[in-house]
Amino acid sequence: MIPVKHRLDIGRYLEGMSDGGYTLDQLRGFVAVAEEGHFGRAAVRLHMTQPPLSRQVQRLERTIGFALFTRSSTGADLTPAGRVFLEEARRLLTAADIAPLRARRVAAGTAGTIRIGFTAVSALTVLGEWIKTAAAELPEVDLVLSEMVTHAQLDALLAGELEVGLVRQVPRSEILDSRLVATDSLVLAAPRDHPLARLDKWPSLADVGEHDVVTYSPSEAWYFYELVVAAFQHARVKPRYVQHISQVHTVAAVVNAGLGVALVPSSAATLSLPNLVFREIADMPRDTVELFCTWRTTHDNPALSALLARV
């Protein structure tokens, strides 16, 4: 067992590499001698003569302040401290070999991290395709996912806390760029035994307005709130709103419980709640629900560029 103070000293001396205390060549020479157990065989392995190798190891020992080998006429045996140092030297050499490759991959966008914000419903559609694409084509890129409403995503993008967001509406800005990635239509969600679910034709907005309507929070879900209000106003219908809720999946759950009907994006049908049916609405305009991806125009993340090019 190596005394604790030796382990602490070794850790401190390993930090000396960043200060120019010793070199990768010295570490490689040390590892070769440790693995061969002999300076002569290690020199042959490294395609050099023995004296320069011996001097390399001696300089390394002087730098770190303790002996790595017990030398004899038959070879070189690691000291207890040398055995611990060997483990760390191998780790450092491996890291040094991997670093350029890793850096090249990051520069090319095939490795790295992307912080993605998304709305609840986008997780049912676009986000899933992004995850599949990244897994198949960018397997060394880590996706860090955060569910947020649109305004929280925009704040996080401006603060540099996200690289890209899946949002409902993007304000005009020189700071943010955006792209329309999906459209959807509002449909009726109703309990299975509800009169609107049993109609032999598509219900109209006037039909919906005769029943209790679960709708969206004007502060937390203003995008869907305004879509629903505009649809009813255009049809000259004044519905009875009974609940105002912030998330689409929660609206669907409340309707599933029998507290009314609601207008939801058709993609919400993937929730498959047991008491819920979805019906198209005869006079509802199509593709009014839009989803954008947005990112900072000045971003410097090659992995984000690689993902956007693929999705």
Automatic annotation (TrEMBL):
It comes from the Bacteria. Residues 22-79 form the HTH lysR-type domain. Keywords: DNA-binding, Transcription, Transcription regulation. InterPro entries: LysR_HTH_N, LysR_subst-bd, WH-like_DNA-bd_sf, WH_DNA-bd_sf. Pfam families: HTH_1, LysR_substrate. PANTHER family: HCA OPERON TRANSCRIPTIONAL ACTIVATOR HCAR, TRANSCRIPTIONAL DUAL REGULATOR HCAR-RELATED. Belongs to the LysR transcriptional regulatory family. This is LysR substrate-binding domain-containing protein.
